[in-house]
Known about the structure:
Elements: E1 4-19, E2 22-35, E3 39-43, H1 50-57, E4 66-76, E5 79-82, H2 88-94, E6 99-102, H3 106-109, H4 116-126, H5 132-145, H6 151-154, H7 164-176, E7 182-186, H8 194-211, E8 214-219, H9 222-228, E9 231-236, E10 239-245, H10 246-252, H11 256-266, H12 274-277, H13 305-309, E11 315-318, E12 321-323
Parallel strand pairs: 3-8, 3-9, 6-7, 7-8
Antiparallel strand pairs: 1-2, 1-4, 4-5, 9-10, 10-12, 11-12
Helix pairs in contact: 4-5, 5-7, 7-8
Amino acid sequence: MSNEILTVENLNTYSPGSIEGKPIKILDKINLVINEEDILGLVGETGSGKTVLINSIGRNLRSPLYVDAKKLFFYKDSEDINLMTKNQDDMRLIWGRGIGFIPPNAKDILNPILTVGQQFANIVIAHSKLSKNEARDKVIESFRDVNMPAPERNFDSYPHTLSGGMAQRVIISIALFLSPKLLLADEPTMGLDVTIQKQVLDILYKLIKKIKSSVILATRDMGIVANYCSKVGVLCNGQLVEFSDKREFFNNYKHPYSKYLLEASFSSHGKLIERDLKLFKSKEVVEMKTDVGCRFANRCYLAKKECQLINPPEVSIGLNHYIRCHRSEDL
C-alpha cells in the first residue's frame, strides 16, 4: 500500500542459548503494518517484550540479542528501505529524520556533564548549517514547543537539576526536531506523576500530529491507548496475540490475554475483580520461549492441551483485526 510506513513480517528475536535444542525466542513471528499517521499502542505486562520489539524494529538491539525477519521494510520519500540489510553505520543515516526514539528514562539518556541545551544544540549543528547562536535560538524555540518552563534559563541546566517531566520534554524535543517519519516511544511517561504524564502526552500528541509522524508507543496503560492511539497491538511474552484498530479492539477484543489486561486496567484500583481472579491461573510456570504453544496458555482459563503444544497461527477475524488463539470463539 502506498501509505505504509512500516511492514514487519515474521520477525523473530533470539537470545543466545537453547531450550531442548531450540533457540530461545524472545519475540515469536511478529507481523504488523504501520500506515501514515498511525499511532499504535503496544500493550503488555512488564517483560512481555515491548522494549525488545521497539529496538528490534529500529535495529537498535543490543548484543547478544539478535533479530531476523522475512520483511522489515521502512518506507520513506518513496524509497523502500530493507532494514534487515543495514548495519549500524547505515542505520545512523536513518535514525533521526527517518526513525526517532523516545526512551523511558530521560535522565539515563542525557549526558550528565553537558547542559541539556548544549546537548540539543550539538545535534542541531550536526544536522544543519546553523551557527552556535542560531542553534541556541532553535533549541529554545523547540523547548517552547514542549512547554518547557523558562526555556532560556533551562538551556543552561544540567540533567540532574531537572524534574522527570522537564527531562522528558527535552528528550521529546530532541526526538522530534528532525521530524521523523516513524517515532518509537518506549513508555515515554514511565515514572512520572499522573498529572505530568497527561501534560507530556498531550504535548507529544500535538507535535506528532503537526509533523505527521507515525508512532509505535509502548505502554502498560490501557487509558493511554484509549485516549491517544489509533491501533492496538497486544504483546504476551513475545507473541503479538491481538492486533486491531482501537475502536474494534475495545468493542470486540477476542484474546483471553486482552481480557486479562482490560480487566486489570479498568477494574477498581487497577486490580482484577474477584470473579475474574478465578478465571486466570497464577503464573506458576514461566512460559518457555520456543515455538511450542501459546505464551498465555499457563495462565488462561480456556486453555486446552492444544494450547500448550501447538503454536497458534495468526488468523484474521475482521477488517484489520488479527489474533493468535485456538479458543477465541469460547471467550
